[in-house]
Task: structure prediction
Amino acid sequence: MLLAYAFALENASFSAESIAATEFPDLARRHLVMGVPRTVVNGGGAVDGAMPEGMFLDLILEAAAPPEG
Result:
């Protein structure tokens, strides 16, 4: 979660907000939240777990990329 906020502060292309799964169970179910942290990208792809910054960025960019085809 902190990395998502750090990226949002550094780059206007990113935004971040934190949602408490226990307070919004419908949203947690919709995004298949089974553990935290779970970073949902553009309402679709997701990144699970804490990790080093470089790995997080790579996974976020991969999740945000348009589908090939």
About this structure: Residues 3 and 53 are 7 Å apart (CA to CA).
